[in-house]
Amino acid sequence: xxxxxxxxxxxxWHEMLKTSDMSILNDLLADDVVFRxxxxxxxxxxxxxxxxxxxNVIQIFENFRYHREFYSEDGLNVVLEFSANVGEKKLKxxxxxxxxxxxxxxxxxxxxxxxxGLEALAVQMGQRMAAFMPKAQT
Length: 138
Known about the structure:
alpha+beta
């Protein structure tokens, strides 16, 4: 059952990226979701901040493409390999996504390389996070 829910959610994730319908993301994220950034040591907890991060990263990435996906035996985890550009910088990375039994994302961790692509993303996301975080904390 878990694998079926996870696969359905991953299909919705791909649909969201293809159609830019971000309302899908709202359905996919659990309220207690945690985002683990490649540029920050401490995770970002909560649906509101994770929604903000993911919708902004999607806007920053250019030529975004997934290449492969891998599922864990328990069906609750998937790793998606991707490539993208941030301006002129190329990057490759993986999204490591953990789902609950209902197919909602509870943990989203991103790993990126090379350092130049990561730094380009960090600059753009840093500006957006600085504008967002004071609002999120009030």
